[in-house]
Amino acid sequence: MYEQLKLNNQLCFRLYTVSRLITQSYHPMLEPLGLTYPQYLVLMVLWEQDHQLVSAIGRRLMLETNTLTPLLQRMERDGLIVRTKGIADGRQTLVSLTKNGQRMEERCKDIPFCMSAQLGDTAIEAAELERMVKSIDSLIEILSKKNTHRFR
What we know:
By secondary structure, the protein is mostly helical. The chain has a single domain (3-121), classed as Arc Repressor Mutant, subunit A, CATH 1.10.10.10. The protein has helices spanning 11-30, 37-48, 54-61, 65-77, 99-108, 111-120, 126-146; strands at 52-53, 81-85, 93-97. Strands 1-3-2 form a three-stranded antiparallel sheet. It starts with 10 loop residues before the first helix and ends in a 6-residue tail after the last helix. The mean pLDDT is 91.
């Protein structure tokens, strides 16, 4: 067997596993609100700045339109957002929060604290988490530059 093909030698596997486990950790907090983790991410983008083009949300979340569109359709059916065609360019779609989507911010305000508390109950110190975040941000920047054709 090739050493480079051993699962334990793969950074990508570790990142994938951490991502999956973190997403699972959000589930008990989001499920009572009727939200999935990707929907929560879209809402956070819109809480920061409402009335955004689908393409801008996609760039922010690093998601392609064909991934984002079904997610937005479901959120619209659930009454969290409304999508409208652009006035200047009918090919563009503007996404805006409904009153229900705006109210959801209040219902979600403690989720980051709950997640921090879960990590705070471990042996990982805040400074170590901060270093990890910076390292992961660097990886994201490097990899997103290599994939410049995507998320436009």
